[in-house]
Every structure is written in structure tokens, then in C-alpha cells.
Amino acid sequence: MTKLFVSITAKHDVNGVIKPITLNWVDGRKFEVDKILDVRQAASLKAGGQGIRYTCKIAGKQVYLIS
Question: By the number of CB atoms within 10 A of the CB, which of 12, 27, 40, 64 ranks highest?
């Protein structure tokens, strides 16, 4: 499986904390982030690279979002 780039709607607070709110799929569908389970510096598991990894529940499934 390859890395897929999608648009994310996020909330930024005055302290610089970023919280993903909505995943915007390429075909126009939108999925609300139900819960953020973890935030950490981490490498991408599938395609390499490093950034902030958000472990989230979206539509009842655990997904990783890398920024």
C-alpha cells in the first residue's frame, strides 16, 4: 500500500497545539475524527519520512495521520 495524501481540517490553539478535526477524502467525502488516541514524533510506517503522528479513531477504525 502506498502513502495517500489527503486534506485535513485542524484546529490550532494559542499554544501551538494542532488538533485534527476532519479528514477530507479526495472524492469529496468527509470523515470526522472521533477521538485522538496519541500524538508523538514518529516515522511513517508505510512510506518513510518523519513528522508528528496522530493516532486517531475515525469511523470506528484506528488510523494514523502524519504531518
Answer: 64
Dump pLDDT digits (tens) for 7-62: 999 999 999 999 999 999 989 999 999 999 999 998 766 666 778 889 999 999 99
Contact 30, 23 (CB under 8 A): yes
Can you read off the three cell numbers belonging to residue 33?
A: 475524527
C-alpha 25 chain-centroid distance:
12
- The closest alpha carbon to 67, from 6, 13, 2, 24, belongs to 6
**What is the C-alpha to C-alpha distance for residues 12 and 23, in angstroms, rounded to an integer?**
15
pLDDT at residue 59 in the model? 94
**Rounded distance between C-alpha atoms, residue 34 and residue 24, angstroms:** 14
